[in-house]
Design a protein that fits this description.
Distance between the termini: 147 Å
Number of domains: 4
Number of helices: 5
Shape: rod-shaped
Helix content: 10-25%
Oligomer: single chain
Number of strands: 31
């Protein structure tokens, strides 16, 4: 059935929109001539992991006998039933229900070609969605993230399907109804693109923008110290550490083809992180933007915190990178979360956050040692007080801690508002939790009754936290001049032990400590010798 050139042009080209198509934008088409078997359909913004297949359901033939003023639309024989069924579906879902005129019986594709107005958008989408592939595809191509072509096609009208695998299941994307370019039709062949479904940027026949079935992704997520003066290795944290997170995400370029393109970034922080919602800022092109809404931070029943930043229309940011920053503080619940905090960012164009996202994981560490004395205290010594310093020297302001259990000595967690004193428990142990990796120097400041106050233990322990969060701590050679800190193997586990003595004779006799002891004794003996000599001389006189 012949159609006037304008109608056929709009229909054939506009339906390259299909389930994604129709609207009110027009532009000139490519006037490059195509012949049967050499036409192609370009899939713009193809998605990796997707397969696109073209099925010809109607032949479009330019009538050269009347100066290319009309196009013949003929439904392919094998497709008449499928096209008619799709037409019936589209007609029946309209309000009021529509009916195909009798003159199109046997050639339903010609009736479809009349659906060119903006009022027909809903009809056309319903038609495209109802179309089903028949027999073998005329051409297939795998998506690569850019533009790909369905080649070797005869001039005509095609159903283009989109299939992909997700979560182990074969899935189907949105159908498109696409016309190839036509020989003899040049600059006045109009194209209609529906901005409501992302086709607003289409200005030529033989192409369409693939519906983005893939979840938008996050470009990167980084974390730094909120205070540049506070040391932060990017991997480990202490309780109370203040952080600044940065999330970068690029809005898909296809957003430009929509009248309205919703876009969201969601951030889910685990237990152990307190999110400062008031600190959230978003930038694009280096400038702060504010055309978004924030939902949250909302703390869930299991302690995770969800924050969602939503752009009702991110069309103006198509192809641009959004940079989101916000502050967070590590809280003591990190100890109840396997000594780690995680933070995952995801992006979405439909409010469904089902992608893997980008996760940042930070760990905290711990250390412990056993305090012991002499005599009845040789296995454990309770009540000894220490101050702890960051680094390899007992200098500056000591760190502060609070008891993990109220009024129970021995176990502590880092707390900048706590006390500088940590005291060995009834089992002789001192356990510190919520520490970042690094060196910590201990100096005894409070002594158990009966023990020497002038023989002061001072030693350094280094905490190491591996990439997987495994914590190890070791006694270093720093500061342990008297040898009061040592290591021992107990039940195949190396522990750190710290000794208190009541007299100098109880100092360890090994290593540097032994040398120190002998030096002290030698000085005492030398002093005694001088005294004896002086007294002897006095007697001689």
């Amino acid at each position: 059935m012949k159609m006037r050139k304008l109608f056929a042009g709009i229909a054939a080209a506009a339906t390259l929109l299909g389930g994604m198509a129709l609207g009110a934008v027009s532009a000139q088409a490519d006037d490059a001539a195509t012949t049967a078997g050499t036409a192609a359909i370009t899939v713009k913004n193809s998605q990796e992991g997707h397969t696109y297949a073209a099925y010809k359901f109607a032949t479009l033939t330019v009538d050269t006998n009347n100066g290319n003023k009309s196009v013949q639309v003929d439904t392919d024989a094998a497709w008449k039933t499928a096209v008619q069924q799709a037409v019936n579906v589209a007609n029946n879902v309209q309000q009021p229900v529509q009916t195909m005129p009798a003159e199109y019986a046997g050639n339903p594709a010609a009736y479809v070609a009349t659906k060119t107005g903006t009022a027909d958008e809903a009809w056309f989408r319903a038609f495209a969605a109802a179309m089903r592939a028949q027999a073998a595809a005329n051409s297939t191509v795998n998506g690569n993230g850019g533009d790909v072509a369905l080649n070797g096609l005869g001039e005509g009208w095609y159903l283009v399907t989109d299939t992909y695998t997700k979560d182990g299941w074969q899935r189907t994307g949105v159908n498109a109804i696409v016309a190839t370019t036509l020989s003899g039709i040049a600059s006045d062949f109009k194209v209609v693109g529906d901005k409501g479904t992302g086709q607003g940027t289409i200005h030529a026949v033989g192409m369409f923008v693939a519906k983005n079935e893939n979840t938008p992704t996050i470009d990167s997520k980084t974390v730094a110290s909120a205070d540049p003066k506070v040391s932060f290795d990017g991997k480990t944290v202490k309780i109370g550490q203040q952080l600044i997170y940065t999330v970068k995400a690029t809005v898909p370029e296809t957003a430009d083809g929509y009248d309205s393109y919703p876009y969201s970034i969601q951030d889910v922080a685990s237990k152990g992180l307190t999110i400062d919602g008031a600190s959230i800022t978003v930038q694009a092109d280096g400038k702060v933007v504010n055309d978004y809404t924030v939902t949250g931070p909302i703390v869930g029943q299991t302690g995770e915190t969800t924050t969602t930043i939503t752009f009702a229309n991110a069309k103006n940011y198509a192809g641009k990178q959004l940079v989101v920053t916000y502050n967070a503080t590590v809280n003591d619940q990190i100890l109840d979360n396997a000594n780690k905090v995680t933070n995952t960012a995801k992006a979405s164009h439909d409010g469904t956050f089902d992608g893997t996202g980008v996760t940042k994981t930070l760990y905290t560490g711990n250390l412990e040692f056993l305090k012991y004395g002499v005599g009845n205290d040789e296995n454990k010594l309770a009540g000894a007080t220490f101050n702890v310093y960051a680094g390899d020297k007992a200098e500056g302001t000591p760190l502060k801690f609070t008891n993990t259990e109220t009024d129970v000595d021995g176990a502590y967690k880092f707390n900048a508002n706590g006390s500088a004193d940590v005291v060995s428990g009834i089992d002789g142990k001192v356990v510190l939790k919520g520490l970042a990796a690094g060196e910590y120097t201990f100096k005894e400041t409070g002594f158990v009754a009966g023990y020497a106050k002038n023989i002061v233990p001072e030693f350094t322990i280094e905490v190491t936290i591996a990439e997987d969060g495994v914590v190890t701590y070791n006694l270093t050679q720093d500061n342990n001049q008297l040898g009061l800190a040592s290591t021992a193997n107990v039940d195949k586990t190396t522990i750190i032990k710290v000794k208190n003595v009541k007299s100098i004779t109880q100092l360890p006799l090994t290593g540097a400590a032994g040398t120190t002891l002998f030096t002290v004794v030698a000085l005492l003996v030398a002093g005694a010798g001088v005294t004896v000599a002086v007294k002897s001389r006095q007697r001689m006189h």
